Amino acid sequence: MRYHDFISLKSKYMSNNKQQIELQKEMGPNWFASVMGTGIIANAAVGLPFIGKNLAGFSTVVWLIAFAMLIFMTIFKSYQTITKPHIIKRQFNDPVMSQFFGAPPMAFLTVAGGTLLLGPHLFGESLALDIAWPLFWIGTISGIITAIIIPYRLFTHNEVHDDAAFGGWLMPVVPPMVSATIGSMFLAHMPHSAAQQTLLYGMYACFGISLMASIIIITLIWSRLAHSGTSGSARVPTLWIVLGPLGQSITAAGCLGTAALITVNEPIASAMNVMAILYGVPIWGFAMLWFCVAALLTLRAMRRKMPFALTWWAFTFPVGTCVTGTTQLAHHTGLPAFQWAAIILFAFLILAWVTAALGTLKGFKQGKIFHNPTSVVHIKAKKGNN
Predict the structure, then answer these.
(1) Does domain 28-356 have CATH number 1.10.10.10?
(2) Residues 24-56: pLDDT tens digits?
(3) Which residue ranges run through the membrane (predicted)?
């Protein structure tokens, strides 16, 4: 081998090796799912029937942890984007990773909700509102943008196969549903005015944005499972994301219905409040059906030694929305069945969080948590072609 050929091969090897090392140090938008999964514990715990008031201290600590995680990840991701813009560009162009750009908006919205629920005890109501409003608008505006841009890119830029539909496709379209829930919480702090009513109807519009898109995507996921089955890979936990729009829509319907009573006149107010039950109970039934199906598919994948990945955080936030949704049904119906169901689901949420957290800590220790598997597959394929 001639010297310059050797240098060329060495340079190519070092370049590829450097790229792999860089991939191991990057942060993807999917990291923000851990903020969502942690924050939803605080939001769900404080509203639980029977025991919610006794968990105020626990909820506050968890909310503060989620808030700290959000600040750290936002600073880290912003620094990475400024210093190495090619990383976020590659993530944005990745057909899988790009779907998780819906996670940061939901992380902001989750922490905003916690600030409204728990912040007044620490900062006072005025300061809590001053902190929560910017978080809400950052999450809402970026979430609507994500709900438009990511599907547009999926339709026009990404190469999509017949069996490509997975739970991650829901990530960009769910943020408006979270906005609908958190937005309803601000209505009680606003004077009775056109602005208050506009926000209410705007949140119902966000409800519709997410609901219709989610129905379409859930249908595609069902079709993919029926025709292609599951791979047994780390993509399986994303099936739990389906619970996200289901549980969150029940929560939103309940919160908006309650808020309508102080925002709009009769008979519209009562109709919106009744919708919390007429819509919420049937959707809750389907959510429990999917809960069982997803659990069985996950157990099947674990028996086949499904590897850990950050997708395991999909066990947390979606289950958390089922807790808050069930709590809303308990509030509107007064039935003990929903009250105890909320507590049982909360126990599952804690178990899911512990499982994801332990896996993440193990991944940190092994250094694999920073790995971008999709990009590495591309690198390996390119090497093979060479």
Answers:
(1) no
(2) 468 899 999 999 999 999 999 999 999 999 999
(3) 31-51, 57-79, 100-119, 131-152, 164-187, 199-226, 238-264, 276-298, 310-331, 337-361
